[in-house]
């Protein structure tokens, strides 16, 4: 009987603890900047943070996309502002942070999500192409971190999450982004050490594997076809969802991660562990895909981002998401 009672109390405590950490107003005093918040993963992060009470500022180059997402968020009762930025411009980055602080009083969280690349074997890549991608991802992320530090966080503290890409074993056909993202991961560790003492600034990375998102629209049809056909070739047997990236970002920004600093959290279904398999890796995995259902929205129910609008990916990639949503664990 005592054992049963102890079990009941333990379970109840966990439920209470969980609810008290991720309650609706968890981020009500926070002002969060999400770069690239007008599309895909950034849009999903913006929705999740707004649904937990944050004032969200989304910033990128294309104002029309930002405006549309801000309207979605406001319709759901969230607070969202839009500002234009090219993260490659360090002076404009500082201006952006100063504008946010002037308008909203502070900047407590920064999500460096803006970035990207194109596919090319290293042997075909021009020096300019390599430099462009490194400039966007590595220099752009540094510009934003430095601006946030100089414009607010150096004096008041804050939390930064840098979205990189899973590149543990190199990044064949994307040498530029692999090099840039590895640079960000190392930079993150340095900033965590150097900036931790300044009011406890935390800097962490999230490294997505292949995600069902708008980013896939940047690739030609034959590449999308190739990517879509390979979703089962990993331990989890599917690609990730935008919500699965957003959930890990929310966690790292939250007080629940207050003692996590300088890490790179791979959110890739374990795919990085199986990269570099010789031909024949298909023998190791299940062509039916995973039995594990995907996480497609936080919070669930009517506020779910994915009930609001389909993920803006090419049709073949969206079809995968619909398949994942239907999957039920047989366990
Ligand atoms: C697969 C799953 C894993 C990852 C998924 C994701 O991340 S999804 C997220 C995906 N989301 C994103 O990627 C979104 C963000 N991406 C972007 O904005 C662009 O892809 C960018 C990174 C190239 C920057 O663009 P920009 O306007 O600043 O640059 P620009 O156009 O002026 O080009 C400069 C130079 O780069 C070169 N070069 C460029 N393209 C190609 C190519 N296809 N081919 C070859 N080379 C190419 C070329 O040398 C060019 O100079 P040139 O020879 O013309 O004088
Ligand atoms: N989808 C995936 O499978 C993976 C994605 N990632 C990374 O996750 C992040 C989000 O990807 P996802 O949502 O899928 O792709 P998207 O292409 O939809 O997102 C990229 C975002 O970055 C913004 N952006 C690009 N260049 C700049 C710039 N110079 N200044 C400011 N904003 C810029 C774009 O907005 P705008 O054009 O208006 O400026 C866009 O909103 C990216 O860094 C991506 O590389 C990493 C691994 C896998």
Automatic annotation (TrEMBL):
This is Peroxisomal trans-2-enoyl-CoA reductase. It is found in: Peroxisome. GO terms for molecular function: trans-2-enoyl-CoA reductase (NADPH) activity. The keyword Ubl conjugation does not apply. The keyword NADP applies. Keywords: Fatty acid biosynthesis, Fatty acid metabolism, Lipid biosynthesis, Lipid metabolism, NADP, Oxidoreductase, Peroxisome, Phosphoprotein. Its EC number is 1.3.1.38. Pathway: Lipid metabolism. It catalyses: (2E)-tetradecenoyl-CoA + NADPH + H(+) = tetradecanoyl-CoA + NADP(+); (2E)-dodecenoyl-CoA + NADPH + H(+) = dodecanoyl-CoA + NADP(+); (2E)-octenoyl-CoA + NADPH + H(+) = octanoyl-CoA + NADP(+); (2E)-decenoyl-CoA + NADPH + H(+) = decanoyl-CoA + NADP(+). It is an enzyme of class 1 (oxidoreductase). It comes from the Eukaryota. GO terms for biological process: fatty acid biosynthetic process. Participates in chain elongation of fatty acids. Catalyzes the reduction of trans-2-enoyl-CoAs of varying chain lengths from 6:1 to 16:1, having maximum activity with 10:1 CoA. Has no 2,4-dienoyl-CoA reductase activity. Interacts with PEX5, probably required to target it into peroxisomes. It comes from Podila minutissima. One of its GO terms (cellular component) is peroxisome. Coiled coil: none annotated. InterPro entries: NAD(P)-bd_dom_sf, Peroxisomal_t2-enoyl-CoA_red, SDR_fam.
